[in-house]
Design a protein that fits this description.
uroporphyrinogen-III C-methyltransferase, 252 residues, Methyltransferase, Cobalt-precorrin-4 Transmethylase, Domain 2, lyase, five-stranded mixed beta sheet, EC 2.1.1.107, alpha/beta, transferase, Cobalt-precorrin-4 Transmethylase, domain 1
């Protein structure tokens, strides 16, 4: 039997190939097999060698190319065949990327795993939109939550957002009405500033702002689609040159 290969869990960052780590770029360029998510930008996949085999395991709401268990099995199968596998994930593998599940199954199968972190979607989106997630004047706590999960209505989000706090919601576009209702029911003011960042770090990026109460209307009216992040907190209302430029463009 061949010596098992290594599974590399690699973060592709928020979208722009320039935001890859040097190690991630090197692994992509030298890989013979890349198993990638749908959120990995085409410009990043173009770094792969022409002879590399690329397998998409893209996930969309209610429609997955492969269930997670099958993805784990695929990675293990390829590694057992002696191949090094680059498992390429948008953002960071360990921030809502199910990298932990893939790592645990690989370890249980006796497969070596290496992890290359990436700029998380939250950090990349905030930087692209020039929103400081923490600020000495208004935010010293940051929380990350998933907006699509089982039992969303039963979860207690009280205290995650409010004065002095910033809340980042991943995968919240489809559940924006429930999110807004939930946060206000837990005591958050309807006029709390929010921002929705769509297609962060890509040429088609949009940053839309408003109060929490209009979040569902904003998502519907502007036809916001994934990938998008919702940022809730006073930091989203601070004036920056990027906000001024966006306002000027919107007025034209």
């Amino acid at each position: 039997m061949p010596k098992p290969g290594t599974i590399h869990l690699v973060g592709a960052g928020p979208g722009d190939a320039d935001l890859l780590t040097l190690r991630a770029a090197r692994l992509i360029e030298n890989a013979s097999l890349i198993v990638h998510d749908g959120l990995v930008d085409r410009s990043i996949l173009q770094l792969a060698h022409p002879d590399a085999r690329l397998i998409s395991v893209a996930k969309k709401r209610a429609r997955h190319t492969l269930p997670q268990e099958d993805i784990n099995a695929l990675l293990i199968h390829e590694a057992r065949a002696g191949r090094d596998v680059v498992r390429l994930k948008g953002g960071d593998p360990f921030v809502f990327g199910r990298g932990g599940e893939e790592m645990e199954d690989a370890h249980a199968a006796g497969i070596r795993v290496e992890v290359t972190p990436g700029i998380s979607a939250a950090n990349g989106a905030a930087a692209a939109a020039q929103i400081a997630l923490t600020h000495r004047d208004c935010a010293s706590i940051v929380s990350f939550v998933a907006g699509q999960c089982k039992g969303l209505a039963e979860q207690n989000w009280a205290g995650l957002a409010g004065t002095g706090r910033t809340l980042i919601i991943y995968m919240g576009v489809k559940t924006a009405p429930q999110i807004a209702e939930k946060l206000m029911a837990d005591g958050l003011a309807p006029d709390m500033p929010i921002a929705v960042i769509e297609n962060a770090a890509r040429p088609e990026m949009r940053v839309l702002r408003g109060p929490l109460a209009v979040l569902p209307e904003l998502v519907e009216r502007e036809r916001i689609v994934s990938p998008a992040l919702i940022v809730i907190g006073e930091v989203t209302a601070r004036k920056t040159p990027a906000m001024v430029q966006l306002a000027m463009e919107a007025a034209q």
